[in-house]
């Protein structure tokens, strides 16, 4: 069982054109399975209809947007729900570990092996030119797939994200790499992933003006 009072040790991942840090386990003061259940029960989940290459379809997962500002991607606009005590607690711990500040979080709920996320980059204007995104996972371990946008010789990189792990993507990562979660052929349990972000574009106060 993980030491829930420990912050763990961060590992820098050696990928070209990327700045990635991975904590295998983050201490949050509560068991991961309890947090998973709380997030599933407390979150106002929705199945969004997005547009890809001009065609609308339902996302193969549930999602929710919480925080201070709205966010737009793939043809949809997400209005924020107010922070819950659970999300505030997790954010506080992640900010302490990463020494960064976040004002919003996107939650994704992968209910079983039939849910996934297509390859994409988090490069929307609202995130700024070199966004920092902190991604923490609870529940079933799933592989996080990375592919370089220009260098096909690098192939696909698979990164296992166990329950309680934290992946920090920053610098030029979104400019050069795409990422996603594949559906599985084997049965698997639920997974909830939280990606903390800082919305900056379109808000003079967030840009420091």
Description:
This protein is of the alpha+beta class. It has a single domain, classed as Jelly Rolls, CATH 2.60.120.590. 16% of the residues lie in helices and 37% in strands. It is built from four helices and 15 strands. It has a seven-stranded antiparallel beta sheet. Strand 11 and strand 12 form a beta hairpin. The longest helix has 14 residues. It is globular and about 45 Å long. The N and C termini lie far apart (46 Å). The N terminus and C terminus are likely disordered.
The H/E string reads EEHEEEEEHEEEEEEHEEH
> What is the CATH level 1 assignment?
Mainly Beta
How many distinct domains? 1
Number of strands: 15
Q: What secondary-structure arrangement, pairings included, does this model have?
A:
Elements: E1 10-13, E2 19-23, H1 32-42, E3 49-52, E4 55-58, E5 62-67, E6 71-73, E7 76-78, H2 85-98, E8 104-110, E9 117-120, E10 133-139, E11 142-148, E12 156-161, E13 166-170, H3 173-176, E14 177-181, E15 191-197, H4 204-207
Antiparallel strand pairs: 1-2, 2-13, 3-4, 5-8, 6-7, 8-15, 9-14, 10-13, 10-15, 11-12, 11-14
């Amino acid at each position: 069982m993980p030491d829930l009072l420990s912050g763990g040790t961060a590992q820098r991942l050696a990928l070209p054109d990327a700045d990635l840090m991975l904590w295998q386990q983050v201490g949050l003061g509560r068991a991961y399975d309890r947090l998973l259940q709380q997030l599933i029960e407390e979150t106002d989940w929705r199945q969004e209809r997005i547009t890809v290459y001009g065609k609308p379809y339902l996302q193969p997962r549930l999602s929710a947007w919480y925080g201070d500002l709205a966010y737009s991607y793939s043809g949809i606009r997400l209005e924020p729900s107010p922070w819950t005590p659970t999300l505030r607690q997790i954010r506080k711990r992640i900010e302490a570990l990463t020494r960064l500040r976040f004002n919003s979080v996107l939650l994704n709920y992968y209910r079983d092996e039939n849910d996934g996320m297509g390859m994409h980059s988090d490069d929307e204007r609202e995130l700024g030119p070199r966004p920092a995104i902190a991604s923490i996972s609870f529940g079933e371990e799933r592989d996080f797939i990375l592919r370089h946008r220009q260098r096909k010789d690098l192939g696909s990189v698979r990164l296992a994200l166990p329950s309680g792990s934290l992946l920090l993507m920053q610098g030029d990562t979104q400019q050069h790499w795409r990422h996603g979660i594949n559906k599985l052929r084997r049965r698997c349990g639920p997974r909830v992933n939280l990606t903390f972000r800082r919305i900056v574009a379109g808000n003079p106060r967030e840009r420091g003006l």
